[in-house]
Design a protein that fits this description.
heterotrimer; A mainly alpha (118); B mainly alpha (103); C mainly alpha (484); A: mainly alpha; Methane Monooxygenase Hydroxylase, Chain G, domain 1; flat; C: 19 helices; 73% helix
Chain lengths: 118, 103, 484
C-alpha cells in the first residue's frame, strides 16, 4: 500500500522545510558587510588566477573515452564470477577468450599512443 | 507492499521521452548523446523491472541489461572520438553548424 | 545447471574474420613498415585472404542442413547465402580500398580490422534468432561503420557525415532496443522461436514491432528515416560507401524477415501498410533527389536509397519474397559496388584525400578509357533495370512477388520510379559517350590492380547473374524454403 511510504514523504517535506527555515534565518539575522576580499570566490586562501569555467582539454576526453571502454567491460566479469563455481573450465576458457580480445585492444591503443598525455 | 510494475513502466516511458526530447531539442552534439543515453537507460529500467516481476528465474533480462551497458559505452566512446575530431577543425560541435555536406 | 552447447564449427566463417581482425592489430604492433602503401597492401592482402576463406567455408556448408549454436544463432542456408552477399560486398570493397586507403591514412590495420568486424556483425545479424544477439550484432556493425565513415580525419566532410550517421544511428538504436524490450515484456522470452510460439498478439507486441520497424528503417535508410544517408554516403571513403550501402541492407533485410516471421498475431495486413508507405516514399524521394545531383557519389547515394525502396516492395509479400530479395541483394552488390569503384577512379587526388567526382568528370571517358566507360555503362543500365542485365531480373522478381501477394499498385509505383531513375543513370552514360572531353573531365592515369579486379569481377557478376537468372533464383528459393 502507498500509505506505507507516508513517513518517507513526511521526512522529505520536513527536510525541505528545515533547510528553507535555516537558510532564511541566517539571511534575516546575519550581518551583511560586503568588501572586496569577501567577494572573491574563495574568501580565504589563494586568489584565483584563471576562470574556473575553462574548458577541459581534449586530452581529458581521450582518457575519459579509454576509461569508459575498459571500465565497462569489467561488468561482464561480475556475472561470470558469480557463476564460476558451476561454469568450471568452460567458464575459464570463455573468459580467457574475452580477456584476450580486450588485452589485444588495450595494447593496440597503448602502442598508438592513446595514453600519452601530450 | 510492493511498487507495482506499471510504475516502472511509466517511469521508464517518461525517461525515454525526456531523452527523446533531448535528442530533438538540443543543438550541442554532447547533449544529444546524453539524450540517447537516457533513452537506452530507460530501456534498461524496463528490462530489469520485467525480469524481476515476470521471469525472475530466467536471467535473460539481466543479461540483456549488461549487454546494453557495454554497447552504450562503446557508442559513447565512438561518439566522443568523432566529436573531438570535428572540434579540432571546427571549434564547435553544434549540430546545426554541420553544413559541409549539402545538396 | 547445464552448460550451453557450444557447437562452434558452423560459425567458422565468423571466427575466421574476427580472428583476422585481431591478427591485423597484432601485426601492426609487431611490424615496421616502409610507408603507408606497404602497410596498406599487407593489411588488405590478409583481409582479402580471410574473406575468401570465410566465403569458401560458407559455400562448403550450403545444403548441409540447419545448425543452432547455443540457441542464439541459427546457421541455415538463408544465413549462408546472406554470408555470401556480405562477403562479396566486403571482398569487392577491400579490393577497391587496397590502393585507396593509403592515399589518406596510415592506419590501414584499424581500417581493415573494422571492415572485418562490421562484416562479422552483419553475418551474425542475419542468423540471430535471439533478441540480445540481434541487438549486439546490429551494434557491432553500426559502431564499426560509424568509425569507417569518419575514417578520413583530414576531411571535414568525412567526420561530419560520420557524426550525423552516429547521432541518428544511436538515436534509432534507442527505438530498436525499446521495441525488443517490449517483445520481452509481452512474451517473457528473448528467443524468437518462443516468441513465435505465443498464440496471442497483445498491444505491447504491436507497439514493439512498430518501434522495431523504425529502427530497421533507419538502418535501411527508408524515407522518412533517411536523413543521415546522403551525408554519410558522400562523406565516407568511397570503398566504405559501396560496402555499407550494400551489406548493411542485406543484413537488415534478412534480420527483419526473421523477426516478422516470428511475431505472432500481427498479420501482414497490419505491418504491410507501414512497409508499403515507407517503400513508396523511399523510392520516390530517393529518385527525385538523385535527379538534381552534380556529385556522382551523392547521386549514387540517393540512388541507393531508391533501391532500398525497391527491395522493401518485396517485403510486403512476406517470406514468399525472400528469394527475390536475396537475388536482388546479390545483384545490387555487383552493380552498386562496381559503380562506386568506377566513381573512385574519377576522383581527383588532393594532398589530403581524393576529391568527390562530379558527373561532369566522366565527360569523354569513352575516348580516354573505353573499357572503364563500358563497365560503368553496364552498371548504370543494370541499375536502371534494362534486360538482360542482373538489375532487370532483380526488379522483376521483387515486383513479381509484390504482385502475387496482391500489392500490384506498389509494383506499378516501383516501375514508374524505375522510369524516373533512367533519366539520371542514362545521363552518366550520355556524358561518358557523347560529351567531349574538357577541363572538368578527370580519370586516374593508372587504374590500380585491386580496383581493376573489383570492376572486372563486378561486370562479370552483372552479366553472368543476368544470364543465369533462373537457375540462381530457383536455388535461392530452395535455400529459403525453411522460413516459409
Amino acid at each position: 500500500m502507498a500509505i506505507d511510504y507516508l513517513p518517507i514523504l513526511i521526512l522529505i517535506i520536513v527536510a525541505f522545510l528545515f533547510a528553507a527555515f535555516i537558510l532564511g534565518l541566517t539571511w534575516v539575522l546575519g550581518p551583511k558587510r560586503p568588501n572586496k576580499a569577501k567577494d572573491e570566490p574563495i574568501e580565504s586562501g589563494m586568489i584565483p588566477f584563471t576562470s574556473p569555467r575553462q574548458r577541459f582539454s581534449v586530452q581529458y576526453y581521450m582518457v575519459a573515452m579509454m576509461f569508459i571502454l575498459f571500465d565497462v567491460e569489467v561488468i561482464f566479469l561480475y556475472p561470470w564470477a558469480v557463476k564460476m563455481g558451476q561454469l568450471k573450465w568452460f567458464g575459464i576458457a570463455e573468459m580467457a577468450v574475452f580477456l584476450l580480445i580486450l588485452v589485444i585492444g588495450f595494447f593496440f591503443v597503448w602502442k598508438k599512443g592513446a595514453f600519452e598525455w601530450d | 507492499m510492493t511498487v507495482p510494475l506499471s510504475w516502472y513502466l511509466i517511469f521508464a516511458t517518461a525517461l525515454f521521452s525526456i531523452g527523446f526530447f533531448g535528442v530533438l531539442a538540443r543543438r550541442n552534439a554532447i547533449a544529444v548523446l546524453m539524450g540517447v543515453e537516457l533513452m537506452l537507460n530507460a530501456v534498461n529500467v524496463n528490462l530489469v523491472a520485467f525480469w524481476r516481476y515476470l521471469t525472475p528465474t530466467d536471467l535473460s533480462g539481466q543479461i540483456f541489461v549488461v549487454f546494453v551497458f557495454a554497447v552504450a559505452a562503446a557508442e559513447a566512446a565512438v561518439g566522443l572520438a568523432l566529436m573531438i575530431s570535428i572540434y579540432r577543425t571546427r571549434k564547435s560541435i553544434n549540430v546545426d553548424e554541420l553544413n559541409e555536406l549539402k545538396l | 545447471m547445464t552448460l550451453p552447447n557450444l557447437d562452434l564449427p558452423p560459425l567458422l566463417p565468423e571466427i575466421i574474420l574476427i580472428g583476422m581482425a585481431l591478427l591485423l592489430l597484432v601485426v601492426d604492433m609487431a611490424a615496421r613498415f616502409r610507408d603507408a602503401r606497404a602497410e596498406g597492401s599487407l593489411m588488405a592482402g590478409l583481409t582479402f585472404a580471410s574473406v575468401l576463406i570465410a566465403a569458401g567455408a560458407t559455400a562448403a556448408g550450403i545444403g548441409g542442413g540447419d545448425a543452432s549454436v547455443a540457441g542464439v544463432v541459427l546457421v541455415d542456408d538463408l544465413s549462408r547465402y546472406l554470408n555470401l552477399v556480405v562477403l562479396l560486398a566486403a571482398g569487392l570493397s577491400v579490393l577497391l580500398a587496397w590502393a585507396y586507403v593509403p592515399q589518406f591514412s596510415r592506419e590501414s590495420s584499424s581500417f581493415y580490422a573494422l571492415v572485418l568486424l562490421a562484416t562479422a556483425g552483419m553475418m551474425f545479424m542475419g542468423k540471430s534468432v535471439e533478441l540480445i544477439t540481434l541487438f549486439v550484432s546490429l551494434e557491432i556493425l553500426s559502431v564499426s561503420l560509424y568509425i569507417l565513415t569518419g575514417f578520413n580525419r583530414h576531411q571535414l566532410a568525412s567526420a561530419e557525415g560520420a557524426l550525423k550517421y552516429f547521432l541518428l544511428g544511436a538515436f534509432s538504436s534507442g527505438f530498436f532496443l525499446y521495441g525488443l524490450a517490449l517483445f520481452y515484456v509481452q512474451t517473457g522470452s528473448t528467443q524468437l522461436a518462443e516468441i513465435a510460439a505465443q498464440d496471442s498478439g497483445g498491444v505491447l507486441l504491436l507497439i514493439g514491432l512498430g518501434l522495431l520497424l523504425v529502427g530497421f528503417f533507419f538502418k535501411l535508410a527508408g524515407v522518412p528515416f533517411h536523413m543521415w544517408a546522403p551525408d554519410a554516403y558522400q562523406g565516407a571513403p568511397t570503398p566504405v560507401t559501396g560496402f555499407m550501402s550494400v551489406a548493411t541492407k542485406a543484413a537488415a533485410f534478412i534480420a527483419l524477415f526473421r523477426v516478422l516471421a516470428a511475431v505472432p498475431g500481427v498479420p501482414v495486413e497490419v505491418w504491410g501498410w507501414a512497409v508499403a508507405i515507407v517503400a513508396v516514399l523511399t523510392m520516390t524521394w530517393g529518385n527525385f533527389a538523385a535527379l538534381r545531383q552534380k556529385s556522382l557519389k551523392r547521386m549514387l547515394a540517393y540512388s541507393s536509397i531508391a533501391h532500398a525502396g525497391y527491395m522493401m516492395t518485396g517485403l510486403v509479400a512476406g517470406t514468399d519474397a525472400l528469394n527475390a530479395i536475396l537475388y536482388y541483394l546479390f545483384a545490387y552488390a555487383f552493380m552498386n559496388i562496381g559503380a562506386f569503384a568506377v566513381a573512385a577512379m574519377l576522383e581527383r587526388p588532393t594532398p589530403n584525400a581524393p576529391q568527390d567526382a562530379t558527373i561532369d568528370a566522366a565527360r569523354g571517358l569513352f575516348d580516354r578509357r573505353p573499357a572503364l566507360a563500358t563497365a560503368m555503362a553496364i552498371f548504370m543500365l543494370s541499375l536502371t533495370g534494362i534486360p538482360p542485365l542482373v538489375g532487370f531480373f532483380g526488379k522483376l522478381y521483387v515486383f513479381g512477388a509484390a504482385v502475387s501477394a496482391g500489392w500490384a499498385w506498389l509494383a506499378v509505383v516501383g516501375m514508374l520510379n524505375s522510369v524516373v531513375s533512367a533519366y539520371y543513370y542514362l545521363r552518366v552514360v550520355v556524358v561518358m559517350f557523347m560529351a567531349p572531353e574538357d577541363e572538368t573531365s578527370y580519370v586516374r592515369s593508372r587504374i590500380p590492380a585491386g580496383a581493376g579486379t573489383a570492376i572486372a569481377v563486378a561486370v562479370t557478376g552483372v552479366l553472368l547473374m543476368g544470364l543465369l537468372a533462373t537457375p540462381v533464383f530457383v536455388e535461392l528459393g530452395r535455400a529459403v524454403i525453411a522460413l516459409r
